[in-house]
Design goal:
single chain, mainly alpha, 2 strands, 8% strand, rod-shaped
Length: 121
């Protein structure tokens, strides 16, 4: 059984569009992962520095254009929470990246299969 040239061309175009879309999304997700990993690293370094300070040290956090007093324990708690949240987001982005890479790979394999079969289904 053979597929008409028009149907084959339309099928190849749809698969190619899906592959291109997946490839673009892969780039976006990779950059989001890199950004979040940098943020995690900054939070970890900040937490390390804060943990080395005496517990009675006055700490001030920037809020807009002003600084607000925050106890060391609150700062440590906030840093830990933000790190956990970002780690969770990186994990979810990793799953999305894996899905997109699989979609891209499958699209390419389908196109190769179509070209190798010469348009026969």
């Amino acid at each position: 059984m053979s597929i008409s040239n028009e149907a084959l061309q339309k099928l190849v175009q749809e698969i190619e569009n899906q592959a291109i879309q997946s490839q673009q999304q892969i780039g976006i997700v990779r950059s989001q992962i890199a950004i979040k990993q940098r943020e995690i690293r900054k939070l970890e370094l900040t937490a390390k520095e804060v943990s080395e300070l005496p517990s009675d040290t006055n700490m001030y956090e920037g809020v807009g254009k002003m600084f607000v007093f925050s106890p060391t324990s609150e700062v440590n708690s906030r840093l830990t929470t933000e790190t956990r949240t970002l780690s969770s987001e990186v994990e979810n982005l990793g799953k999305r990246l894996q899905y997109l890479e699989t979609t891209f790979k499958n699209s390419r394999e389908h196109m190769d299969q179509i070209f190798k079969s010469g348009g026969r289904a």
